[in-house]
Amino acid sequence: MTKPHRKRRPKQERQERKDPPKPRSGWVRGIPWTHPAVVGPIAAAITAGVFTLASKTMERDAPPCEARVYIVVGQDVLPSVRELTEALTDESPMELVPRHPVPESGDPLKIKAVEFFNAGFDAQRSGDIKQAIAHYLDALVLDPDFANAHSNLGVALQAGGDLDGAIEHYNRALRIDPHLALARFNLGNALQAKGDLDVAIMCWKRTLEIDPDNAYAHYNLGVAAQHKGDLDGAIDRYEKTLQIDPDYTNAHYSLGKALKDKGDLDGAIEHYNEVLRIHPEYAYGHNSLGIALLAKGDLHGGIQHFTQAVDIDPGFAPARNNLGCALADKGDLNGAVEQYNEALEIDPAYADAHYNLACALAGQNETDDAVQALAKAIDRAERYRELAKTDPDFDPIRDDPAFRRLVYGQ
After folding, report:
1. How far is 271 from 5, CA to CA, in rounded Å?
2. Over the stretch 11-38, which tens digit does the pLDDT of each residue have?
3. Which of 212, 277, 303, 343 has its CA 20 to 30 A from that of 317?
């Protein structure tokens, strides 16, 4: 009987909050305040309340102006008593419309709007989301039909946690320019983050009608297909992604996961190795490669990559659990117990690690400690009681009265 597994998401580092932007004076420098084109939009903007800035700052571990979208599409469990957990990260970066060249002549308001737009782009790329929002709003006061400013403002609002505001500005951009592929793509990301995956899929497909070489849109459609259980569709999208961008790490990672789920371990190992070629210090890549290698019967290779994963990220509890499983398979129960305890130090509620620890302690005839660890697993999920009834790892202590009371109620 395959043991239940625990879904794990990658640890996210907190980004330091940015200080609020300092008040600026003369923000329409070079344009008279009495200019009708300035006074009118300002009044309208104040009435509409568009100067309210997003209060949240970006707190994900992404580079500036990127959102991390996590869709857990499955985890690895080997056909053994002890369970191995694969952490899968799916990142869907938002895309910015790049800087505009400033016109040398023409409407001074539009020229100033482009300058504000470029200042917003620069602030956003440097991670100053609040300042970026302020600059984009300045640009839109001067040029309300500036579609690219609406699109990038949506990205900034989404990075700041304001999904509704982001969706509003993506839609404004698309009403002005229905062929703005970046706004369509980012709208899909925001809708997915709101939980509307089906409409998000429509947006990403429409993005590809406008821009067939948008690797991120192909990738997102692959993640969505994998989430819905369509492995063939996911594999097709990931392969198209890699035809466009051969070094897209997440596409290699997710393709490896999909191929492994289809039973193609050699293909999975190939793509996990590509992940580590691009990012040798990627702990999740080492963890997943270790799982695939163990499934191929390469115990030494599995232990090697689980060890690398915890060396890179000592707080990676699933990798420690997996290393414990591999060491137990090797017969090193002392090493296994150490890793399970390390995993529980990191995450005391990690039920699988409690159960696996109980298995290893039973193998060492540490009856009291094994029963105590099993009790903690059962406290977190009743299904562990049923597993323990037939699990051969508990045979050494099966006749113990405390074990029988806990497991059989006798």
Report:
1. 24
2. 322 222 233 233 232 333 333 333 333 3
3. 277
For 265-277, letters b (16+ CB in 10 Å) and e give bebbbebbebbbe
Is 2.40.160.20 the CATH classification of the domain at 66-91+213-347?
no
Averaged pLDDT, 47-59: 26
Tell me which DSSP letter residue 105 carries. Answer: S
> Collapsing DSSP states into helix, strand and coil, what is residue 248?
coil
> Full-prediction pTM beyond 0.85?
no
- Cα 278 from chain centroid? 18
Reduced to 3 states (helix: H, G, I; strand: E, B; else coil), residue 325 is helix
Residue 183: enclosing H or E segment and its boundaries?
A: helix 181-193
pLDDT one-digit tens code per residue, 348-361: 999 999 999 999 99
CA angle 126, 156, 114 (to 5 degrees): 75
| 3-class DSSP state of 296 | coil
Rg of the chain on CA atoms, in Å? 26
Q: Treating both helix axes as pointing N-terminal to C-terminal, what angle do 163-176 and 181-193 enclose, rounded to 10 degrees?
A: 150
Give the number of C-alpha atoms closer than 13 A to the C-alpha of residue 82, restricted to the C-beta side: 31
- The pLDDT, as a whole number, for residue 93 is 60
Q: Which amino acid is at 74?
A: G
Characterize 88-115 residue by residue with b for buried, 16 or more Cβ atoms within 10 angstroms of its Cβ, and e for exposed. bbbbbbbbbbeebeeeeeeebbbbbbbb
CATH label, 31-60+95-178, candidates 3.40.50.300, 3.50.50.60, 1.25.40.10, 3.40.190.80: 1.25.40.10
Packed helices 163-176 and 147-159: angle between N→C axes, nearest 10 degrees? 170
Query: Is residue 157 within 8 Å of 103, Cβ to Cβ?
Result: no
